[in-house]
């Protein structure tokens, strides 16, 4: 425990980096994943095609390569301020995780009986109204558990950004090693922090499931 009390600033900075990567990447993933998920079930063929290409291309690319692209290729394509690796890592994590969010949303939408969407369209509702008023409220109940699994995976994937000069819990071991601290103890402490963070997410999942269960 002395490794925590002797380096409080280091742990605080590492934890903050992990939280920023998780929240920033999660926000991008939710927004982009919702859009791509809607494209995947859109009645417009070109929208479905674009959504399928995006999901299959990004999801089948290792996360490390995605972050390599954002760290080394994006600065060559656009003017990126120096020291913006954290922002680039957030974008990379968000765009990568969005593919899993999109597929989770699409799976949830597919659990809603087709007849309900057809009945809504027969009443004159457009695609957007059918999705927002009929399909999504029902699909939300079924996507909560798999969606939380996606965000738990995102939380753990934040450690990959440590290989690109982004300070987070994933690279605190290297710093401790340079200071002569026990690496095994550092790893155990980092594991304990991640377990606590995952327990928080699990508690949020149970609360959301309970709320939607009561709403039925």
Automatic annotation (TrEMBL):
Membrane topology: Multi-pass membrane protein
InterPro entries listed in its UniProt record: AA_ABC_transptr_permease_3TM (IPR010065), ArtM/GltK/GlnP/TcyL/YhdX-like (IPR043429), MetI-like (IPR000515), MetI-like_sf (IPR035906)
Record keywords, A-Z: Amino-acid transport, Cell membrane, Membrane, Transmembrane, Transmembrane helix, Transport
A single MF term (Gene Ontology): transmembrane transporter activity
Compartments where found: Cell membrane
Domain called ABC transmembrane type-1: residue spans: 15-205
UniProt GO cellular component terms: ATP-binding cassette (ABC) transporter complex
GO biological process: amino acid transport
Pfam families: BPD_transp_1
Top-level taxonomic group: Bacteria
Transmembrane segments: 15-36, 57-78, 84-102, 184-204
Principal location listed in the UniProt entry: membrane
Family statement: Belongs to the binding-protein-dependent transport system permease family. HisMQ subfamily.
Protein name: Amino acid ABC transporter permease
Originating species: Microbacterium testaceum (Aureobacterium testaceum)
